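[Discussion] Sanity-checking designs against the backbone

I'm trying to build intuition for which residues belong where. Below is a structure token string of 367 positions. I'd appreciate it if someone posts a full sequence so I can compare it with mine line by line.
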């Protein structure tokens, strides 16, 4: 009978660590308070408060259930291992090995989550992909990046809502704004913020020459209105209305319900087209604008401390965080972490977790 003692001891330590960073004791204390709140007859009189309470309760219950399930699996494996060792029953090896491997997989995912230390890492993410230098190739590249993030989100079970887009002059998109909804969406997508460089044989070049194109991803956490402390002057905002182009039935495409807001002083542009009425779209776009302005203030503070403003503004040569090379060889390489992958097609199809994990480890190591 194979001895799993060392693996089981190590797994118990990791499960114990998980109880600490998941804050299981605090969650168990918080649970009855939230359950009382959720059972209030008048809770849904305030829909936003009801969503907050039920959402938090769902997270609390999910983390407690995950921890207790892992602990129960570990205890089962320890008991089975002890009994099998007593009678030297090798037939139990497969089941014990399967339990240990399953726990390792779950704990690896949790240990990655433990690297999220920001105030808003658990939030949904509001993202914008913007084409940069490279003409039609850059616009096509921006659309490819958008598709890559949609595929990544689908792999994780996250929901994606396209808020608005501007078509490219020849191909692809000039810009696209989208919402990624899921726990830790912002925490993960922070790793992708910056300029992305593509090298390939251009389909838009008659001579078939190799072309370099750039596009950038910006990402901010989705905050509630009462969490965004930004004062807006309505005279600084220009509003345009247009017909929505996405899904939503006949009504949404027959009326000019989509809204685009342009903030003059900052140059920030946001749009929303997913709601049925112009009023609803404007309200959501205003919230998005406030979130972006709040993030702009945060960036300004960081730039002042780090002296990096000039490095991140230009979406072109010398400013990229990652390169995607399709010709003359195939390679994706992150220039911050040095993590690389040869399966470019897989990465463009949403296999981004290794890059995100490498970034989180690099960020923690570099303070």
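Best answer:
Here's mine. Compare freely.
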């Amino acid at each position: 009978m194979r001895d799993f003692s060392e693996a089981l001891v190590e797994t118990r330590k990791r499960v114990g660590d998980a109880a600490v960073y998941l804050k299981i004791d605090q969650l168990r204390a918080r649970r009855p308070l939230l359950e009382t709140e959720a059972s209030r007859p008048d809770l849904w009189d305030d829909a936003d408060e009801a969503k907050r309470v039920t959402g938090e309760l769902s997270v609390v219950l999910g983390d407690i259930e995950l921890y207790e399930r892992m602990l129960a699996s570990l205890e089962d494996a320890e008991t089975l291992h002890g009994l099998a060792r007593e009678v030297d029953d090798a037939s139990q090896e497969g089941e014990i090995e399967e339990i240990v491997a399953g726990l390792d997989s779950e704990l690896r995912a949790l240990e990655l989550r433990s690297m999220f230390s920001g105030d808003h890492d658990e939030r949904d993410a509001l993202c914008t992909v913007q084409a940069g230098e490279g003409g039609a190739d850059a616009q096509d590249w921006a659309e490819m990046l958008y598709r890559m993030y949609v595929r990544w989100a689908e792999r994780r079970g996250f929901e994606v809502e396209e808020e608005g887009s501007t078509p490219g002059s020849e191909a692809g998109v000039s810009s696209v704004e989208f919402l990624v909804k899921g726990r830790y969406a912002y925490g993960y997508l922070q790793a992708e913020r910056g300029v992305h460089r593509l090298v390939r044989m251009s389909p838009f070049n008659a001579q078939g020459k190799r072309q370099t194109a750039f596009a950038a991803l910006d990402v901010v956490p989705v905050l509630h209105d009462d969490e965004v402390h930004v004062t807006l002057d309505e005279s600084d905002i220009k509003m345009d209305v247009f017909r929505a182009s996405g899904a939503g039935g006949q009504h949404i495409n027959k009326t000019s319900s989509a809204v685009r807001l342009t903030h003059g002083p900052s140059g920030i542009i946001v749009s929303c087209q997913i709601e049925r009425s112009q009023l609803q779209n404007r309200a959501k776009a205003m919230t998005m604008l406030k979130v972006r302005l709040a993030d702009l203030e945060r960036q300004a503070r960081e730039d002042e401390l780090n002296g990096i403003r000039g490095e991140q503004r230009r979406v072109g040569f010398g400013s990229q965080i990652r390169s995607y090379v399709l010709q003359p060889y195939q390679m994706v390489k992150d220039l911050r972490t040095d993590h690389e992958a040869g399966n470019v097609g897989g990465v463009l199809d949403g296999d981004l977790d290794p890059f995100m994990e490498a970034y989180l480890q690099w960020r923690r190591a570099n303070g």
